[in-house]
Structures are given as C-alpha cells and as structure tokens.
Batch of 3 targets.
Target 1
Amino acid sequence: MGQRAVAFWVCAEEWLSGHLGFFGVVQERRNKGKRSLILQFLSRCLAPSPLTVLKVRKMFLKVQLPWNVVIPAENLDTKGLVLQKSIIVRLLDEFATKKATKDLGYLLAVTTLDHIGEGKVRQHSGDVLFPVRFSCISFKIFRGEIVEGVVHKVLKHGVFLKCGPIENAYLSSLKMPGYTYTVGENPVFHSDKQPTIEKNVVVRVIVIGTKWLEAEREFQALVSVDGDYLGPLDKES
C-alpha cells in the first residue's frame, strides 16, 4: 500500500451520527467487539465537557488511501467479472489486519469505496489484482490534547491507562501532583483533595508525548494530570 494519503480533520460526532454507512455495518458484523470498545471510548470523549469536545475533534482523521486488492480466481464469475462484494469483503479483511500506521494512527473503519481500477490478471495463478481507493476513519492522538483513559495497571512509579485503541498510556507519579502511592493488595495513588487513582478508574489527562513502535505497529503515550480540569472522574460524571 502506498504511504501517501490525503487527510483532513473530521469531527467524531459526524462518525457517530451514521457516517460509516454500509461499510461500517459490514465491518461491525466482522469486528463487533472492537468497534463496541471504540464507541464506548467515543461516548466518554463526547461527554458534556467543552474542554473535551474541543480536543477530541483533532483525534479523528478522515483519510483516502490507495490499496491493491487481489481476488482469487474462484471468486470470479463465468464471464471473468468480479463481484463488487468480493472486493469489499477482501478489502475489509486486509484493512483489519493493518491495525495502524505511523502517519495516520489506528485505522478504525472503512466508510466508502471511492474507485475501483482496471483489474490485472496474474499469469501463474489467474488471480486478479484491482487497484482501489477508499475512505476511512483513523484515530491518532497528538501532544497537547485532552483524552480520557481507564487505569488497568498500577505500579509504584505510575499507572498505565487504556485510551481507545491505545493500550499503554503511561501516567508517571511525577505528573500526579498531590498524589502519593499506597502499597497493598490493590495499590492506589491517594490524594487529600481529589478522588483516588486506582484500577478501573477513568482519568482525564493531557498528552505530553507519543512514540510509534514499528515492530508492534502501535503507539505509546506519556500523559499528565498536572493542569486544570484534569484527573480522575467521579463515577457520576
């Protein structure tokens, strides 16, 4: 797949209001669990907080990408014509395995199939290669943005949060002013003025750095609660 892509900002509300269309429905059936987690994360981001809504608009990109889709000979009809459905199914399968790219972030969902080029037959196999262009939604966080994550690991020197598709957003104890570590069977970070930071608590943080891991094809992030309106959220919020 080529690395060039045309990208422009898209508001997350547009996606939730049905922008995914047919392709989103197909992909939801194929990857229901993952999409459910993403929608839960979006619902947290779009909670009635002006600060959060302002920042979340930058995370979601609408991008158009080129791709080569190979259709096996057995999926062609007797006249040698490929069904559009076969191209869509194959594209969604390959798209799901791509996971993420350094430039675009995590690839979440195909929205439209914009163009199907002329097929080229492979001599030895009889398979047909179709160059296509499609639009999709991706997720990428940037330094200075406000996000919300769920604590899934508590260590002496900090905690790890899950933030949408990002599994490891690290909040160092040095970036938790007023908090002290309390050891125990279920270790926590305690503050006299704010709610406790512990496992399964939702924390609003600001991103202070990101790192792309090529081998794992994923991002890591450094975050902080040192700022206004940041920190663990009350259960009713």
Note: The longest strand covers residues 60-71.
Target 2
Amino acid sequence: MDIDSTPGSSHIVHYVSSNLKERVQAVDPTGGRCLVENCSSTRAIEYCYLVPPRSWQISGILNALEWHWNMRANTLNLDTGRNVFPAGASVHHMYDTGRWVLAPEEAIVQQYYDTLDPICGAVRARFPIIPDRNDFQYTLIPIKDMEDIAFSRQTATDASPVPDNFTTHLYPYDTLPFLVSHIHPKYAIVSAGQNMSCLPLDRLQALVQSFPRLINIMVLYRAWMFHPPINNREDDSFWPPYDPSGDDGSEENEEGDDLKDAVTEKGRYTGTRLKRAREESPAGNHPRIRAANQQSGEVEEYEEIEVRDCDSVITRKGRCTGRYRRRKQNRHEVADDRLSASGKEKQSCGLAQMTVGEHTRKVGKMEWNRDAVRSWSSQVLHEKQGESH
C-alpha cells in the first residue's frame, strides 16, 4: 500500500500491485533500491508515483496530456512502470507532499522545450518521441520545507555496509550525484510542474532564481495542461474510427506506456487494474457507456442505479456486476423486505418471506409490487382454505 499525499489530495491509500512492482524492478537500474539514498530494497522500500493515480479521475488532465503528447484518446496509462520508482518510506513521503522534485537532464528538457510554438504553445504534431531507457539522469531539487533534512546515501552495495560506505548530503543537496533511473522524463516534468504550481508566487519566484532550469519545466507543464481544441474529435489521429477487426481484447503491453494496441472500441484498457475513471461519450449518454456498445434498453436499465450502488462494477456493455446484480436478480425479495417493514401489512398478507421467495423463483421476472403481493396472497389463502374443507 502506498500513500498519495500530493498537494491537494486527502492522503488516499493506493494499492501497488505485485505485477507493477515486478515490472519496476525489472527495469530499475538499482534493482529496487531507494532512488535517493540507495538503501537496500529490504529496508522499507515503497513505490512512488510521479503522476499519481488520482489523476485518472480528472479527465481534463488526461485529455490534455494525450493531446499534447501526440497520443490517441484514452490510451495514457499512469499505472506504468515508467511512472513509478522505488524510494524509502520517508523519502517517498517527502516526495508525495511536494517537498522535492526530480529535474530531468537539461538536454532532454530543452528537446521538449524547442518544440513549443511562441504563440500556440505545445503543438501536437511536434511532440518528440524519446524512447524508454533505464539510464535517464535526474537532479534532486528541494522546493519547500527541506532546510533541516539530510540524506544519507549508500555508496557501496557489493558487500555488507560499513560506516565508510555512506555519505551525508545537506540542503540544497548539490553534492548528490545524478540519480539514474528508468522513469520517463515526461512524467517527471508533469510531476515537478504540479508540485511547483502549488507554491506561493513569491516562493516560486525565489525557487526559479536559485534553479533556473526549473523555468523551462514550468513552461512545459503549463503548455501541456492547455485544453485540446474544441474540434479534437475530428482529428482521426486522436479519435480514430472504430475498427472491429482490431479489437481482440488483448492485454496491455509489458511496460504499458502508450498502450497503442490495447484500446477497445470504448477507449478503455483491457486487463488493467485501474480502469479509466472517465469515459466521455460523444453521444452525450452516460459517461461510462459508449454509444457504440449500447443495446436496446440497456442504458435505461442500469444507469439510474449506478450512483446508489457504488460497489458495482460496470462491464464492457454497461452491465453491472457485484451487489446490484444480485439485488436485481432478486428484486422481488427486496420489494418483500420493504413490504415487511410495516408489521400490519405483513400480517395482512399472512405469508412468510420464504413463501414469497419460493414462488417468485418459479415465476421468474414477474414484477412484484404491493398490490400484486396482496392479490397473490389472497388467492393462495383462498386455495388453502378450500383444501382444508
């Protein structure tokens, strides 16, 4: 379990799957050791998101990044190993509370920055594709409340540690070496921009004076946060026409970075732990149900109940699984429970709940209401009285 304490969040606990941890460890150059202190992976190592999973619930952020990063709609996966790095518990907490950021290599930041237009800002078609690597270099930059914090970094890892294997680094940590990691620079830029945007203006101005390289990072973040054009759905590279032959329901690729082959006709991932929390429908229907998959009467049957039963799960065609599905199959029992809430009405029926349940299982989908139960109970009582005579 990891804690998301990014500024503005409510210390939400996020589950980091074992599969994601394995994917991170497979590409992490340190083998799962803390990125900052290089301590052993057996020493309370946690897994830290650059862009937190809660951003999946903010459709504006996802739309903007997908557009400016020249991706297709609904294909950005934040649950990728390129967005997660290992860190000690205290280091992780300080990162999630926005106290320090990771600045990518200046050459990479400049490569992104050179594609910006002086008037239009970020241009979708110009976005540079920087391949995944396991040796990106980052600089740790403190941005708030770090003046009394020291990092103790382990320098030798090939044997049992001794006192000489550790070096202490004090604020502003300019003695720390470059931090080598597999995380992709675009996620680090977004994360740094998010944290710096939460700072007071005077603090931000003082920060960029001390670390001028942060100016370009902040400019990139703000450029990438601009809303896509109103007519973005007319761009086939962003909203491609649905091709049924290409939807094989395949799982996301191992790294899950762009997931270009894992988009279904509804724009969702297949086989991911975190389904996209937003599914905007161009037809204006329920946000979780795309027009392409609607069957006759299917939306009307389920969409009104979804808010009440939050533990239900929406499947590919808008159907519900979980508690509500069981309740819907036994809705006659629910109606009977409501009827039995009043002792007088239950006595007037003269029937036990088990009797009603047995009969309704035979009838099937008959709609049981107050009048139907009374009519049926009167008929059954009349038949029983006739048999007794």
Note: The radius of gyration is 28 Å.
Target 3
Amino acid sequence: MESKAVDQQPLSKNAQKKLLKQQRYESKKAEKKALLKQEKKREGERKRKEWEEKLAAAATEQEKQQLIESRKCLRKERMEQRSHDKEKKMTRLTNAKQNGQNVVIDLEFDNLMNSSELHSLVQQIMYCYAVNGRCTSPAHLWLTGCQGEMQDQLQRLPGFDKWIIEKENRPYIEAFQDQKERLVYLTADAETTLDVLDPKHIYIIGGLVDRNRWKGLTMKKAEDQGIQTAKLPIGMYLKMSSSQVLTVNQVVEILLKYLETRDWKTSFFEVIPQRKRCEDDNDIEWKEETEAKDDHEFKIHDIEREEEVEGKDDHKMKIHDIEQEETEEKDDHEFKRQCMS
C-alpha cells in the first residue's frame, strides 16, 4: 500500500512544467508533420493535374508519346545527376578526413539537457553535416563523447550510419590525448580572440543548447583540462543584439565560410541571422551589397529539406523513385486507354 501511495505522489511544480513543455513540443511536432504531409499531397495533385492538362493539350498521338518519352528522360537525368552529386560529396568528405580542418563537436553535456533540447542539438548536427557536405573544401568533423540518449537520437536519423564523419564514444580529451597541445576550445568567455584558423589546431565546439543557463561552463571545462581557449572575433565586425552565444550549426558554418573566404566579416554577416545583430551603418551597407543573396534562414530551411532527402538510405530513395515512376506510368497508360476508347 505504501509503495502505491508513493507511486501516486503528485508531480512537483518543476516536473509539471517540464511535462507540459514536452507535451506542447510533441503536439507542435505532430501538427507540423501533418501540415507538411498535406502540403506534399497538394503539391503532388497539382503536378499530376498539370501533367494531365499538358497531355490533353497535345494535338496528336505522336506529340503525346514524345511528351511521355521526354518526361522519362528528364527523370532519368535527374536521378543520374543526384547520384553524381552524391558521389562527388562523398569524395570531398573522404578527402577531408586526410586534409580538412579538424572541428570537434563536444557531446558530453547530454545530462544537462532535456529531450527537446537534445532533439534540437541533433537537428543542429544534421545541419552541420549538410553544410559541410556542400562545401568545396569541407572540414573534418568529429562527434566526441557520443553516448546515452544523444547517441540514441543520432542513430535514429535516416542514413546516420553512412555519414562520413568521425563518431567517437570517448571524450575528446581521450581521443586526442597525444595532441592535447593542439586542442582549442571555442567559447565566448575566452580572453584570446581567434585571428586565423590554424590547420594544425583542433577546434572544439560545445554541444549545448540553452547555454544561458550554463554560462562559463565550457570555459571552466577547458581550464580544468588545461587546454587552450579562444573566441570568434565577432565584436570586431558587428554588434550583437544579445549575447554572443550562437548555435552549434552557426559556429560550424562560420568556420566553414571562413575556410572558403578567409574573411571573418563575410563569414559573420552571411551566417549570423539579422535578428541577432544590432543594425548599424555597417549592417545597412552590407545589406545593400548582398541584397541579391538568399536570407540565411531560408538557406537553413533549404539545407533541412535537402538533408531530409539525402539523409534517407539508398533503399528508401529507390523505393520512392520506383513508386513515383509506377504512378506516372499508370497515369500515362490510363490516358492512352482513354484516347483509344
């Protein structure tokens, strides 16, 4: 009876808040998934209608046949191009393991985050991998201290097992024990400002969401381990509207952009969202110079959509293509039958 009473004890206010937050998160996630499904369905119906109208507008049977053949050739070209792009990406990432700048994402903080924060970090890691794969000269990415729930969530990502990225269960301090003098922890609390990226150094980024709760944590960790620390030279080029804490994927993208351009200003202005910056004369000037460029938020959305496609394993992609082809062939056959009858 006593154990039953203990089991039925009401949740604390803190626990109730966490539970409510998790329920809200799950509800939002389900709504978003349903909306995306509806949008995908509407888009499919729109494309099918366009195709049927195009076929109906054809004057002769020969023209219709040419349209069908043209569509098949186009689909084949798309599949071949996608396969070619994927091969090139794999080659770049494989070469980066030998020649790329070493960038480590430290995943030893999973015990300080709740499930939704861990999920957010997993999404950020997915963006990091996607952006790195698109770079002409990608970095050599590492995930260290990858254990527990963090590891479980990463394993659930489609195609994660095939990622060309170093997955290390050990902490970075053990994985690089023979190269400790080359380790540099990037933290906004550091006194040293990073001037350039040294190819011999191994740069570490703290894998932590909502760092405002844990201010100074990564700095203290690096000091306790006796490794170097440095901060990005953000203050030299722009003024942040809040703290200089950025998400993991933003830091990785800044480093990748710098490796490409060797220009910190360009890297910061192209990656850091406008909402995080105080607009001044430099900002206005930069906006005028880059008016034609895509907004960073749209770029992240594009990466997410691309990774949702590329991250799926080959089998699922093939199944999808086969199903789509079968559907289109059925449409073609049905249309032909109607024309003949």
Note: The chain has twelve helices and six strands.
